[in-house]
Amino acid sequence: MIGTSVYLNGKLLGFHQKPLELVDAIKRKRRKGDMPTDLNVCYYHDLDEVYINTDAGRTRRPLIVVEEGKPKLTKEHIKQIEKDEMTWQDIMEQGPVEYLDAEEEEMSFIAIKEEELTPEHTHMEIHPCLILGAVSGVAPMPDHNSSPRVTMASAMLKQSLGIYQSNFQERMDTQSHLLHYAQKPIAITAQAKIIGVHKRPAGQNVVIAIMPFDGYNMEDAIILNKSSIERGLMRSTFYRTYNAEEVRYPGGQKDRFELPNPEIQGYRGEDAYTYLGEDGICIPECEIKGGDVLVGRTSPPRFLEEVGELSMMEEKRRENSTTMRHREKGTIDSVMVTEAPTGNKLVKVRVRSPKIPEIGDKFASRHGQKGVVGLIVPQHDMPFTEYGVSPDLIMNPHAVPSRMTIGHILEVIGGKANSLRGTEMDATAFEHIDYEGFKKVLEERGFKSDGREILYNGKTGERIEAEIFTGVIYYQKLKHLVSNKIHARSRGPVQILTRQPTEGRAREGGLRFGEMERDTLIGHGASMLLLERLLKESDLVTELVCEKCGSIGVNDLIRKKVYCPICNSTKVDPVEMSYAFKLLLDEMMACGIRPKLVLEDKA
Fold first, then answer.
1. Taking the domains of the chain in order of start, what are their residue ranges?
2. Secondary structure, 3-state, 151-165
3. Average pLDDT score over residue span 233-247
4. Band of the pLDDT at 310, cuts 50, 70, 90?
5. Which of 60, 229, 364, 561 is in the most buried spot, having the most CB atoms within 10 Å?
6. Is domain 237-302+313-355 in CATH 2.40.50.150, yes or no?
7. Looking at the predicted structure, is the pLDDT value of residue 26 above 80?
8. Contact 427/414 with Cβ under 8 angstroms?
9. By the 8 A CB rule, do 567 and 554 touch?
């Protein structure tokens, strides 16, 4: 009998007759400090193989070691840690806590809480919330929400606007957002405190009412209070940095930062250079719009010029300035002149744009309840409580039942109670939520214990028949702003190769009319609309086609002659076609295939 295979980092090390004893011995030596703490071992019963891993790149997490149903980490250890008499490294070396990788964890029996411990358990969680990662641990009460919503909340936390760096004024990031009046959340988790998220917040606590409002908050849309926005709710600034470099070319030629001369090739007109100084660089605090020049730059010609009258090379420079993006506007925030890694002169221009919440901007709570603004309502038309409080935000009640975001509801009522007593709410996963305490606080302050209130219609002054659930919850403004995405085009540039409209908002492109859109027009029998969209408004071209051989004809403007280059026939007719089709014919001819077009009368 050979025995059990033993692998070290995926390579066969040898064989062993007693695999369980081997694994236990390795674990004991690791806990004593005789073996490296980053070593992990695992025995697969079904494969009868032992895997020992010491390689880099494994995800590992700390767990408390359990022996005979008792955790090895004692209260004495915790007291010593609190007094700074013992470090994390000391605990690791003494063995009460060890790091497991995914493979060893698969073969371990881990208890969530100390009360659940049995003699069969091998490890225990330091705290139940540590089964969550750093990002999902920041989301409040994830154990009260369905898992897809926690995933969404974790993804949207990364998209929220806040104070991303304390030295943002000194930085020249390509794109950045800054929330003006960021607030620390009332509902906060233990992980968020450890990471320090609350010190660099990314949202605001808002007064919310969960109710429909004239149908403007259907399908996850939200209603915002106009007066709240005017008081600074969810206002942010968007920064964009533009770079310009004096590039050196082979042959000693290079770009130059300067105020372009009207005689140079591609001069943009006097208005485009309004905000430039004498050095060709823009002046800070100027209001600029799309198309305005930020850094005036001229480049040498792409090809060598012809010899001039005096047998000397005449340098005809071309315009190559850095301009503000199409459809954007803002204020020049700061200008930095420095040197690029290549040794060339480099200019960075940071432009700031105020972003005030508008219809179409995206907001989300930390429970995956995302939505765009459907309406901004003046405060005098918003519903109000008997105390005269109007909500900052109105959310649709239909967004809750099917999504099962009970954490959202708990945060509303917990936020309401804690804002009244001026305290934080512990929203750590798997911790007890003091719902009875919230009810008591609300009752003491004269509110209903279930968080519902009588609201009055702001337009008519009449009492709303239903009781409305209101409270305080933390909302995030996300980076998906309608002002950065809105796009429309009537006319615009085309691609040189295909002569079809360019693609994308940044290039002033058209909106793509795809195959499925084409199918709908075919299904409706709207042939003239199909012709307009796919041909006339795209790349319509009139080409000459030979009646005799079906080749593309030539219009010789010098000799004022129209003929076929293949058979020299002068019987060529103008035919409307897509330029992309004409390009296909040319490419086929380049491959040695001669396409032939057969002409018929239009009748």
1. 4-126, 149-235+359-477, 237-302+313-355, 492-532, 540-590
2. HHHHHHHCCECCCCC
3. 95
4. low
5. 364
6. yes
7. yes
8. yes
9. no
Q: Which residues of 438-470 are buried (b: 16+ CB within 10 A; e: fewer)?
A: bbebbeeeebebebbbebbebeeeeeeeeebbb
Beta strands, E only, 180-296: 187-188, 204-210, 222-225, 236-245, 256-257, 287-289, 293-295
Cα(197)–Cα(199) distance, integer angstroms: 5
Query: Can you say how many angstroms the Cα of residue 375 is from the centroid of all Cα atoms in its chain?
Result: 24
Name the token pair of 419.
Answer: 């804002």
CATH code of domain 540-590? 3.90.1800.10
Greatest alpha-carbon span in the chain: 104
Query: Would you state the structure tokens that stand for residue 325, as one six-digit string?
Result: 């993006």
Indicate the burial class of 60 (C-beta count within 10 angstroms; 0-12, 13-18, 19 or more). middle
What is the rounded CA–CA span in Å between residue 394 and residue 21? 63
Residue among 220, 333, 381, 434 flagged as catalytic: 220
Cβ–Cβ under 8 Å, residues 517 and 526 = no
- Residues 362-415: tens digit of each pLDDT: 999 999 999 999 999 999 999 999 999 999 999 999 999 999 999 999 999 999
Is the Cα dihedral 463, 466, 467, 469 positive or negative?
Answer: negative
Please state which CATH number belongs to domain 149-235+359-477: 2.40.270.10
**329 to each of 179, 198, 234, 326, 479, how far by Cα in Å?**
19, 32, 20, 9, 17
3-state SS, one letter per residue, for 381-441? HCCEECCCCCCCEEECHHHCCCCCCHHHHHHHHHHHHHHHHCCCEECCCCCCCCHHHHHHH
Could you confirm whether domain 4-126 is CATH 3.90.1070.20?
Answer: yes
Tell me what the mean pLDDT of segment 61-76 comes to. 88
Tell me whether domains 4-126 and 492-532 share a fold. Answer: no
Give mean pLDDT, residues 33-47: 89
Q: Which of 365, 369, 368, 268 is nearest to 324 (CA)?
A: 268
- Assign 3-class secondary structure to 196-215: CHHHCCCCEEEEEEECCCCC
For the whole model, what pTM was predicted? 0.86
Least confident of 121-125, 393-397, 451-455, 599-603: 599-603
Alpha helices in 509-600 (DSSP H): 515-524, 527-531, 579-590
Assigned fold of 492-532: DCoH-like (3.90.1800)
The pLDDT of residue 603: 57
Give yes or no: 220 in active site.
Answer: yes
Backbone angles phi, psi at 602, to 5 degrees: -70, -10
pLDDT in tens, 522-532: 999 999 999 99
Q: Name the residue among 364, 260, 367, 361 with its Cα closest to residue 318.
A: 260
Tokens coding 57 = 């790149």
